[in-house]
Write a structure and sequence with these properties.
heterotrimer, A mainly alpha (about 325), B alpha/beta (about 180), C alpha+beta (about 500), B: about 180 residues, alpha/beta, C: about 500 residues, alpha+beta, five-stranded antiparallel sheet
Chain lengths: ~325, ~180, ~500
């Protein structure tokens, strides 16, 4: 199995998280930032049994079939929701031909899927190396947007946006922030210390989520009621140079992050299909992408079902440790 | 087989692109818009494109009518000045920001005369310059579309510079019926 | 007639039969010179190839001493006497089969066969015409050496040896090409080269069985992975000083006879942007020029595509003044912007190709025709707009700053233009993701092509993103082994 470093792992997973933040819909506030940050920390705590399991030498391949299928379902569902988010967010971000009816959407999704097939087929190492570069470029763009927002926006905007309660935002953060399925798979690929990698990832996720949401609130706080996608709109409205628009350049970051987010899910799904259904080894990547694209056509939105999504996320993180405990218990009974 | 598929898709896509005639000169670039109830006046960057005044129920219809009159697509992404008349200002500005995708630096101003008269008598460049000068001298506050829309949504009203034949002539308050409801 | 363990035909001891065999195998070729004579009481024959041997050297160093040998009892004693008592040349290989004999003759050796001997003695008296050491045609520089490799592998070997006088520099000669029998030389620093790297390269070379090796392109594919890679993971250089710097870093070089280029293994993407002048100037200027080359590469590949994408799909990115200028310039252009851009780029490629292939006396006409027709008449007639011509010219100039990557820049530029013209910035982003992945996937012999950027190696940044001062660089003792991912 090819190995990746903890920084490569964190970059790959954060790209997906940030893309999900770009596509976040509905009103957000400073409380959302706090909720998402706390949600990430809560995910870290929930993931600790899994991390412990992996640090003892376990991996996704050594889990039972049920756990593998659960992880696969989680990865495919999240991949499908990424396609759905892309379709929805393209109403704010101009992607040529996207708004030319259903065929336009299919063409755009097909192009992304084609690129993802190629990226996934190049292997996890190529994905990880290119992901780091893409993440670095994205970080630079986000930094520019943040600095511009801080310099040009008014602090009152932070207070003006009204959101839900902390517990509501915490649940939303737990459910929406990133694909824990791919985390559960890719953590097994890391070369470095597993717990170090997990802690680094969730801490970075908490910080970046808070930063992106606060920036979005700062820029669009006053117009939150009419902002369908506040983070995407914030990136477009936050102009560092008054005389030169650069909002379309956000499309580049958006597109790159979209591709890598889906590619990470596709790679994780490809691996799981490979270990669960070995007979499908030849077409596993294409199968994964087709299922994800099809799932993206369904009207199910994670943001409308945060409780279910949060429960599913927790289940995914706890499934492998739970199965390990059950197996261990069964083994002890047999020995007795 | 994979490479053949990719090559075929690329070739088909190429045909689309080669047939596309996206020339810069094929569009009219909107510089300023004056919205007075259901009368919309559009003023363009190019001297060859004269002002167009249309009556329409909403801005989407107004843009369509203007395109039919001009004979080419109206590109609204460059709009620098919005002159508002009376009601529904929050909805109007929200539509302009989201659908017309104007620059966040687009100025919103009020008008003491009809928008059509204002834009026909004074070029938008001078009106815009007047507003910026007023801001520089502290006579007018921030009046970009994002700030004005934010204030309308939050407070129900917003102070904007007022324009007339003589240029900048003070500030006025615009209200949002949507916020008031 | 017997064959040795490699299946080659052994030399016949009888002189007449041997000469008859030589004539048969050479097909009566006129340039094989066969001179029979008697020396030391033994009938002998001196074989050589017309134009390959230095007649004067042969006459003074070989022929004169050979004909003055005292009476010997037989061929074996004669050859023993020559080997121990006469130093006729510094290079004195022997041949036991006709394959080796012909290879030596065709390499400029004078070969002596004798009646009763089943071996042949060869004397290195090469004197074939070859180009002298000249300034390299590419890889120009300001402050470094102006010597470049030549077509003769032994001259190239001497140029390396002159610069790296260390006994750790090893050069292993071998022969490749079943028909061409080309000499190739594997060069490495014994104390610097990773053992596994050397092993793998030797294995790749031994597995390569080309028919002929007439340029580096005949052998490079055998040294690289089979998968489709946009950029080569092996480099080439025309400069001995550059090659020496690579050898000191633990890389391996392959010199090919008949080609004034050396192949360097492994090669990294960032090295395409390095020049020897970077180490001659002060670090601040070196950093500036290096980043200029990085920017030039991006401009060369992306500028026409970004221009087309912005004009067609995202005009709001242009400021209003530029918009008016462009609108005025594009008004009379009859073709869609994408077709116009393809037309201009393809025209440039045709002109460039014509400039390379044309004989020098006619070459000047190319610049006149291209300048007049493309630059003047096309714009005045409105066939092509001035802004697009300017953009294309900038892109082309950017490509000249990184000549190493010229083929890739040319193809990628066209692909990105197609992507930008069809799908705008979105299309450019998708293609950029695919290209980036292809570059990151390139890894030969365990060395990732995108190191030290990704995987990130801080030690490598000192000579990539920046250029450390020479004292710090010498102290860090860097070898390419630091980038190895496979043998950690």
């Amino acid at each position: 199995m090819n190995r990746i470093s903890k920084f490569q792992l964190v970059s790959l997973l954060l790209i997906g998280d940030v893309f999900a933040l770009f596509c976040i819909s509905g009103s957000i506030s400073a409380m959302t930032a706090a909720g998402f940050a706390a949600g990430s920390i809560l995910q870290l705590v929930t993931a600790m049994p899994l991390v412990y399991l992996y640090s003892r030498g376990s991996s996704p391949a050594s889990c039972g079939r049920a756990v593998k299928l659960l992880l696969l379902a989680g990865v495919l569902t999240w991949g499908g929701s990424l396609f759905a988010m892309l379709r929805q967010a393209s109403s704010v971000i101009y992607i040529p031909y996207e708004n030319k009816g259903i065929w336009g959407s299919i063409a755009v999704a097909g192009l992304i899927a084609l690129v993802c097939v190629y990226i996934s087929s190049s292997g996890i190492k190529a994905l990880a190396r290119s992901g780091v570069i893409a993440a670095a470029l994205g970080a630079v763009c986000i930094a520019i947007v943040v600095v511009s927002a801080v310099l040009h926006s008014e602090p009152e905007a932070l207070a003006s946006a009204e959101g839900r309660s902390f517990s509501g935002e915490l649940l939303r953060g737990f459910a929406l922030s990133g694909g824990v399925g791919s985390f559960a798979v890719l953590l097994g690929f890391t070369d470095d210390d597993v717990s170090d990698s997990a802690v680094l990832y969730f801490i970075c996720k908490a910080v970046i989520s808070a930063l992106v949401i606060l920036t979005a609130v700062l820029v669009t706080g006053g117009i939150m009621d009419v902002s369908g996608f506040p983070a995407a709109m914030a990136a477009q409205l936050s102009q560092p140079f008054p005389v030169q628009r650069i909002d379309s350049l956000f499309l580049i970051v958006f597109s790159v992050f979209a591709v890598y987010s889906v590619a990470v899910q596709a790679s994780a799904a490809e691996y799981l299909i490979g270990v669960t259904f070995p007979e499908m080894k030849k077409f596993r990547c294409t199968a994964a992408l087709l299922i994800m694209a099809a799932a993206g056509l369904f009207p199910f939105r994670i943001s409308d079902h945060t409780a279910i999504s949060a429960a599913a996320a927790a289940l995914i993180l706890l499934a492998a440790p739970a199965e390990h405990l059950i197996r261990k218990g069964a083994l002890k009974k047999r020995e007795v | 087989m994979k490479f053949k598929l990719i090559a075929a898709s690329a070739a088909l896509a190429m045909l689309t692109g080669c047939a596309a005639d996206g020339k810069v000169s094929d569009k009219s670039y909107l510089r300023a818009a004056a919205i007075d109830g259901n009368v919309v006046t559009l003023s363009f960057f190019s001297d060859e494109d004269e002002n167009i005044t249309v009556a329409a129920d909403d801005l989407s219809q107004a843009k369509t009518a203007a395109e039919l009159r001009a004979g080419k697509e109206v590109f609204t992404g460059y709009t620098e000045l919005i002159v508002l008349g009376d009601d529904n200002n929050a909805d109007t500005l929200s539509f302009i920001l989201k659908e017309w995708k104007v620059s966040p630096e687009c100025i919103v101003a009020g008008c003491s005369i009809s928008g059509e008269t204002l834009l026909s008598e004074r070029p938008p460049k001078e009106l815009e310059g007047a507003v910026r000068s007023a801001q520089k001298h502290g006579l007018a506050g921030k009046c970009d579309i994002v700030t004005v829309l934010g204030r309308l949504l939050q407070n129900g009203s917003a102070e904007v510079p007022e324009l007339s034949r003589e240029g900048f002539c003070g500030t006025s308050e615009i209200r949002s019926e949507t916020a008031a409801e | 007639m017997t064959r040795n363990e490699r299946g080659k035909l052994r030399l016949l001891p009888e002189l007449e039969a041997s000469i008859a065999m030589i004539k048969k195998l050479s097909g009566g070729s006129s340039d094989v010179l066969i001179n029979e004579f008697t020396t030391g009481g033994v009938r002998c024959c001196l074989l050589s190839c017309e134009g390959m041997m230095s007649s004067q050297t042969a006459a003074e160093m070989v022929l004169a001493p050979l004909t003055e040998i005292e009476e010997q009892s037989g061929a074996e004693e004669l050859f023993g006497y020559i080997s121990t008592h006469l130093l006729l040349s510094c290079d004195r290989p022997t041949a036991e089969d006709y394959d080796t004999l012909f290879r030596l003759i065709n390499s400029g050796f004078a070969v002596l066969i004798a009646d009763g001997a089943d071996t042949a003695l060869a004397f290195g008296v090469q004197g074939y015409a070859s180009r002298g050491v000249q300034e390299p045609s590419g890889e120009g520089n300001i402050m470094g050496s102006h010597e470049g490799f030549t077509e003769t592998v032994r001259t190239n070997m001497s140029m390396l040896r002159r610069r790296l006088k260390s006994p750790e520099l090893v050069m292993e000669l071998s022969v490749k090409g079943s028909k061409s029998r080309t000499d190739i030389c594997l060069c490495y620093m014994r104390d610097r080269v990773p053992e596994k790297l050397l092993e793998r390269i030797k294995r790749s070379l031994s597995e390569a069985q080309p028919e002929s090796v007439l340029s580096t392109g005949y052998i490079r594919p055998f040294l690289e992975k089979r998968s489709f890679e946009l950029f080569s993971t092996t480099g080439i250089t025309e400069r001995p000083d550059v090659l020496c710097s690579k050898l000191i870093e633990g890389r391996v070089a392959v010199l090919v006879d008949g080609v004034p280029y050396a192949i360097i293994i492994p090669r990294l993407f960032c090295e395409s942007f390095h020049t020897l002048d970077d180490y001659a100037f002060k670090p601040y200027y070196a950093v500036f020029s290096r980043w200029l080359r990085y920017a030039a590469f991006l401009i060369a590949v992306l500028l026409p595509a970004v221009y087309a994408a912005i004009v067609m799909y995202h005009p709001e990115l242009l400021n209003s003044t530029m918009l008016i200028l462009l609108a005025d310039a594009e008004k009379n252009a009859p073709l869609p912007i994408l077709v116009e851009a393809f037309f201009v780029l393809l025209m440039y490629e045709v002109i460039r190709e014509a400039g390379v292939r044309l004989p020098k006396p006619v070459g000047g006409s190319v610049s006149i025709i291209s300048g007049l027709i493309i630059g003047d008449a096309a714009v005045k007639s409105g066939l092509v707009s001035t802004p697009l011509l300017t953009i294309t010219a900038l892109a082309v100039l950017g490509g000249f700053a990184v000549p190493d990557l010229q083929p890739q820049i040319t193809v990628l530029r066209l692909c990105f233009l197609a992507a930008g013209g069809i799908m705008g910035l979105f299309g450019i982003s998708l293609l950029a993701c695919a290209v980036l992945t292809n570059i990151c996937a390139a890894e030969d012999y365990g060395f990732p092509f995108t190191a030290p950027f990704s995987p990130f190696k801080r030690q490598g940044m000192g000579d990539t993103a920046f250029r450390l001062g020479m004292r710090k660089m010498q102290r860090r003792g860097f070898t390419v082994e630091a980038y190895n991912e496979q043998d950690k």
